[in-house]
Design a protein that fits this description.
The chain is mainly alpha-helical and about 180 residues long. It has helices at about 5-15, 30-45, 55, 60-70, 85-95, 100-125, 130-135, 135-140, 150-155, 160-170, and strands at about 15-20, 50. The longest helix has 28 residues, at about 100-125. The relative contact order is 0.11. The model has no long low-confidence stretch (mean pLDDT about 85).
Length: about 180
């Protein structure tokens, strides 16, 4: 059973899952094991993020490419090094609630969330106050990137002072450690 194979045992033991995307798209979207990993991460309440190359974070064309790939995600179209692995993953998916279609929907939602998070990083790095305000004050207070930095920290690091001031007005200053 895939629920008890070494892959799942290892995945259960981690605190979070981070997938590394390449510069021309997200190859993990095309691999059966990565698809299953995303589904298990959701099932076991593991935070799931995609790490993008720094130079890709700010390119809108990259987000269009990723969004296009997500719409057509289908575990049945994914590849595996061994055909028996793909068959086992498809069998597992067909036996879960919602079947293969349900698995596809879950993984699409996970990737959409990860891409939205990367777009928010891009907005912070560029000082896009309109997009940042769309996140909402409560979510902005809790928001952290993979390194644990807040939106406020990213704005400050990138010298986006006008946007930083507006976001601080929105979220408050209580969470900032000021040097005395």
């Amino acid at each position: 059973s895939l629920d008890s194979c070494p892959f799942s045992i290892a995945l259960r033991a981690v605190q979070r899952v981070i997938v590394v995307a390449n510069r021309t798209g997200c190859q993990p979207l095309q691999r059966c094991w990565c698809f299953l990993e995303a589904a298990f991460a959701k099932q076991w309440d593991k935070p799931y993020d995609i790490a993008f190359a720094d130079d890709q974070i700010v390119k809108k064309s990259y987000w269009r490419l990723m969004s296009k790939e997500i719409v057509s995600l289908d575990v049945q179209k994914c590849s595996a090094t061994y055909e028996r692995d793909k068959k086992a993953i498809l069998m597992h998916a067909s036996q879960t609630r919602g079947g293969i279609s349900g698995l596809n929907d879950i993984v699409r939602a996970i990737y959409e969330h990860a891409i939205r998070k990367a777009e928010e990083i891009s907005a912070a790095e560029s000082g896009d106050i309109t997009q940042l305000r769309g996140i909402g004050a409560d979510e902005l207070r809790k928001w952290r990137n993979l390194q644990g930095s807040s939106i406020v920290h990213i704005l400050a690091t990138n010298s986006r002072i006008a946007a930083l001031t507006k976001i601080l007005d929105l979220v408050g200053r209580e969470h900032i450690d000021l040097l005395r």
